[in-house]
Design a protein that fits this description.
CATH superfamily of the largest domain: Hypothetical protein af1432
Distance between the termini: 28 Å
Strand content: under 5%
Largest sheet: none
CATH architecture of the largest domain: Orthogonal Bundle
Radius of gyration: 19 Å
CATH topology of the largest domain: Hypothetical protein af1432
Number of helices: 19
Helix content: 55-70%
CATH class of the largest domain: Mainly Alpha
Shape: globular
Structural class: mainly alpha
Amino acid sequence: MPSYAVKKLDDSPPKKYIVSMFFKKIKRYSALLSGNFEEIFKDKEIPPLPEVVSKLLEAINDPEIHLEDIASIIATDAGLSTQILRVANSALYSFPGEIKSIRKAISLLGVKRIEQIAISYAVKEAIKDPKRSGFDFNIFWSVSLYRAILSKEFSQKLSLGDPDEAFTGALLQDIALPVLLKDWFDVYEPVYKEWLSSDIPLHVIENKKLSWNHAQAGAWLAKRWKLPDLLVCCVGFHIESLSNIEELNLLNTPITTVILSSLFPVGSRKDNIEDIIREAAKFGLSVKDLEAISLLSYEILNGLANSFGIKKVAVKPFSSCLKE
């Protein structure tokens, strides 16, 4: 059994190395039927991100940009401004007193956190309900947000990378699924039908029928959206084993916490609780630790759900899953 001892943060591999290893890995994975995603989906529309977020991400990457410029860009979009203030005032950060201005939110949160909130908002706006039988969009976002919070809590507890990147990486891990169901269903329908009628993991069915999976498709989408390389890797690797992540020297990154979050039972399907217990134990986390992290995440989820347009939280705390 491999040792998942946590390294110091300054031992983390550089992000260029991470993305280089990711694309080497994904190339080995994908014996794609038509060669690549560009060919497979050449006639398909890519859901566009809101223009204001694209401008914001470009501005954030400009070393000469000022906070006032960032605030001005955000202020042009009421939806993004509202989202940033809602999240800033949520239990996710628990600042004392109400934050009422974007300028103050940027000052308190920092540009990096603002970037992560903006990306979360952008993807939430870009992805639409596919309205397919058997797929509940509210459950999809409930599960995604719950796993995002879990990933952030794991990151903080284990000192694995940046907690906000861990949050966003986990939130986006399944972004390809609604797109595959809505816009690319002619390609994806056989996979979806088998998944609904079996307990076989989705990516196993995808690899068998298509020679690619939703994690790879999601990474391709994230790359097309020009999201940060580390988030591309989080999406693409979330179905990987932690043993493989360790072999790639990526264990001390948010990729690890995204994978842990993906193993958490949520009650929507027959989940293997033993998977998360076994993997968490390698980091020194007990079942009681998992219950505590789950309970805290569940409480934050209920406080944050409205900010993400979730009408009803549709997941169960870990302790409830243990009793079933």
